[in-house]
Amino acid sequence: MEDIYAELLQKTAQGDQLAFKQLYEQCSPKLMSLCIRLMKTEALAEDVLQEGFIKIWDKADTFTPGKGRAMTWMSTVIRNKGLDKLRSLKTTALETEIQYEGLEFASVDLEPDKLENLSQDVKDLMLCLDKLKPDQRECILLSYYYGHTHQELANKLGRPLGTIKAWIRRGLEDLRPCLT
Amino acid sequence: MSDIKTTKRYQNPELFEQLAIEYAVGSLQGRARKRFEALMETHFYLRAVVDAYENKFASLVELLPDVQPSKKVWNNIDSHIKASIKASEQAKPKVAWWKSAFFKQSLGMAMMTLVISSILLFNPMTKDSSATATAYNAILESDTVGVVAVTKILKSDMKLSIDIMKPLNIDENMELALWCHPKDGGMPMKMGTISKQGKTEIKISKKEWQEMKNVGRLEISIEPKNSKNTREPKGKVILKGNLNSAH
Asked: How far is A7 from chain B (nearest CA, A)?
């Protein structure tokens, strides 16, 4: 699958504001979706999205197309911004708005037309995740999408903290050989 | 002593790979996450492994349903960018003054500007495009096992550091040599021999630092120990990667 955003990101690196606007218009809905899951409130999510895109503008020249896809590079920038913000706020988990709970969107049984639009990278990753036990898979995805701590996962899933830690550790141990 | 222990601990590939994947997925938290971030600053192989895992997991974002942010987000970003561009234009050096003067002053003044510009452009004492670079780095990969080593060259301590993340098996009578290849071809520059695992530091001269701006690619080859040939790699090149500058 062609990296449709790489060219826009490279133009952004050269100071092309129009390309950056197009990049924002096309990518911000997915990245906002990530921000709102991590940050729990719309206001904080929009702060992170804004700061993240300013960083993308400033650092676009560090993107190397051969090393990964533009969307994955931008997602990492935005997610790390979100995790830094969460840590700086030192907030305990706020209640997630009900429509942003769950992992239905990451189901392995996606409809064919949705699957068609996904990159090979995410299809490969889903195959790897599908090999894990459901509990391990759920904990890993909740950590990624919602930034939950071990304790938050324990509370959310009603399991002892030690069990959650073990699920994540073993799940990632099992995932590693599949990813490399 | 404890620093040495910590360093050795994080050179255990099993351990740091596990920590790197936990960091990337977000399950490494609290003080452990902060400690790991501090280590990534000094052990750049950790950064490279984390980058690789972050790249893998980032594709998960594709699965998310779209959520449209409000218009004010773009408006704020746009204002910030326009303000920063304006600020950087105002902060531009005297060249801009000379440029504007060029069109306003007499021919004599224009000629003087040309002479001064020529001196600035062609005088080897002032022409140094690497002056703005503060560091260079390269990720060295093998054709079979991917990323194996990370190299960093810092102006601040005039050192080249190379971390071999996955130990390399070579015969006892052989050694690893690091080479810098010029961007426009020509003879490579041998930087020295390096350890087959862990970190090696090589002190570089001012001249070598200045040469870095012309280097396009780093390579590691296997050479016989104490080989007299130092002009170019004779043995098999096992790792290579492009050199990137940082400002």
From this structure: 18
Listed residue (A97, A87, A69) closest to A8, CA to CA: A69
Minimal Cβ distance to A83: which of B26, B69, B74: B26
Lowest-confidence pick of A174-178, B44-48, B83-87, B224-228: B224-228
What domains can be seen in chain B, in order of their start residue?
A: 2-57 (no CATH), 87-127 (no CATH), 133-246 (2.60.40)
Give A108→chain B minimum CA distance, Å: 10
A145 touches B at CB < 8 Å? yes
Tokens describing residue B75: 């408006």
Q: Does A26 touch chain B (CB under 8 A)?
A: no
Question: How do residues B99-114 score in pLDDT, each as one tens digit?
Answer: 555 445 555 554 555 5
Minimal CA separation from A28 to chain B, in Å = 7
Higher pLDDT, B158 or B68: B68
Of the residues A111, A125, A169, the best mutation for testing chain B's interface (the one with the most B CB atoms within 10 Å of its CB) is A125
Any CB–CB contact under 8 A between A176 and chain B?
Answer: yes
Predicted TM-score (pTM) of the model is 0.63
pLDDT at A56 over 90: yes
What residues contact B67, with CB distance under 8 A and at least 6 apart? A29, A32, A33, A36
Using a CB-CB cut-off of 8 Å, the residues of chain A touching B68 are: 28-29, 32
Ordered by where they begin, the domains of chain A are 1-92 (1.10.1740.10), 102-180 (1.10.10.10)
